[in-house]
Amino acid sequence: AQKITQTQPGMFVQEKEAVTLDCTYDTSDPSYGLFWYKQPSSGEMIFLIYQGSYDQQNATEGRYSLNFQKARKSANLVISASQLGDSAMYFCAMREVTNAGKSTFGDGTTLTVKP
Amino acid sequence: DGGITQSPKYLFRKEGQNVTLSCEQNLNHDAMYWYRQDPGQGLRLIYYSQIVNDFQKGDIAEGYSVSREKKESFPLTVTSAQKNPTAFYLCASSTGHRRTEAFFGQGTRLTVV
């Protein structure tokens, strides 16, 4: 069973608007971390934001915020005030404590920001 | 500056040949990982290592081999047994703790000719 599900293969957003990228996960481990990465066309993976399973508050990093709903097992990424440079592929990933530090990645969402 | 260096950036392999992809890190990270990415898809784990002289198979290890003789280095060999090796390969490292992100190299694009 897939542990990370990103149901949006592609998304479009108008410049300066906000966009939400969906991520749901599956785990029986009570201790885990959730990550979002950005992959521009150059191929490098850029870390954006982290949410721990025991964190009480939703994580924020500049224009990025994570809408963490633990009971629903969802960790959606919200990008505010989209910029043209945000056009890229975005991956949600999970690391479980009982899984030897390995990260499992979703299939990604391609975001296109329109001018 | 600390980081991860992968080389080469582009690699061409003839069918039946083994090739080795280099991955070096100077972040003093214990854990290192190799991922494969096919066009338009996510990352799949090939091998990972949590400590020197030890490594484990990931989800798609068949046709690949690794070594971890030094903390800084985790080379990946794509053997002739890998039937469809054309892909983008990413190396990563982390402290191994669940709260810390992985740092990635720039990737190696391997093409079979």
Unreliable runs of chain A, pLDDT <50, ≥5 residues?
Answer: none
Mean pLDDT of chain B: 92
What is the radius of gyration of chain A computed over CA atoms, rounded to a whole number of angstroms?
A: 14 Å
Could you tell me the radius of gyration of chain B in angstroms? Answer: 13 Å
Instruction: Report how far apart the termini of chain B are.
Output: 36 Å
Oligomer: heterodimer
Mean pLDDT of chain A: 93
Count, helices of chain B: 0
Quote the distance from N terminus to C terminus of chain A: 38 Å
Helix content of chain B: under 10%
Q: What gross morphology of chain A would you assign?
A: globular
Tell me what portion of residues of chain B adopts beta-strand conformation: over 45%
* Biggest chain pair interface: A-B, 27 and 28 residues
Spell the H/E element sequence of chain A. EEEEEEEEEEEE
Largest beta-sheet characterization of chain B = 7 strands, mixed
What does the model show?
The complex is a heterodimer of chains A (115) and B (113). With 115 residues, chain A is mainly beta. In chain A, the strands form three sheets. In chain A, strands 2, 5, 6, 10, 11 and 12 form a six-stranded mixed β-sheet that branches. In chain A, strands 3-9-8-7 form a four-stranded antiparallel β-sheet, with no helix packed on it. In chain A, strands 1-4 form a two-stranded antiparallel sheet. The termini of chain A are far apart. In chain A, 36% of the residues are buried. Chain B has 113 residues and is an all-beta fold. Chain B is built from no helices and eleven strands. Chain B is globular. The relative contact order of chain B is 0.33. Classes of the chains: A mainly beta (115), B mainly beta (113). Chains A and B meet through β5, β6, β10 and β11 of A and β4, β5, β9 and β10 of B.
